[in-house]
């Protein structure tokens, strides 16, 4: 393995080395107050030319803050010595890709020592020099994880609702299809989850077409003729209709309810529809 370069700090805090010095003609003060963390590394390779470590030769203020480190704690140190191989394995893999191809790379990484997430853009401007620009995306990723947890809780609740229920996202793809609706339509969730283009109407009507849940996205005029009874209460729609395809072709009168779903910022992210069999109730109310 190649030896580590002999790095020395000059009076301005820059790193000078005969072999791995700063990029010629580059004023590092340009990077100092950028919002992105900027780090310049000397590349260490093994005998086969593979990048095995990176030695920090420059880091701007944002980079220090991101890694919660003092300047003297970073400059001249290798990232494996600082953080351990497990914490930097992804970074070394991407460095190999950038150095070997000459093309920049972009990736997100979980920095285990601080439990932080970074979006990284990296490139190799010259032989054995590697530069990264990092943005702290921890808050965004944590929010996404919390939303995913809440979404899974919602899906778990939907799965065991007594009424037949399905959910579509903002792109009209099916993201939930519970046990009750499997029994009502004969369509299993594994056959419909992830499908769009009105696939959710097929088990009901045998064709792809807008149904009540789509009134949330479309005008009421486009759907009124499809239902014998349609009512709106706030943002929730109610309808009653006879669907001949249900329960293996026996058909059923159903009461249908569709409501929009919003995220924490109030953005429409999908809609939910519940379907209740009211055939027996209709027979009682409307005997022949």
UniProtKB/TrEMBL annotation:
Biological classification of the source: Archaea, Methanobacteriati, Methanobacteriota, Methanomada group, Methanobacteria
Superkingdom per UniProt: Archaea
Species this protein is from: Methanobacterium bryantii
Biased composition (Polar residues): 1-10
SUPFAM superfamilies from the UniProt entry: PYP-like sensor domain (PAS domain)
Stretches the record annotates as Disordered: 1-20
Protein name: Histidine kinase
Residue ranges of domain PAS in the record: 150-195
Residue span(s) of domain PAC: 237-288
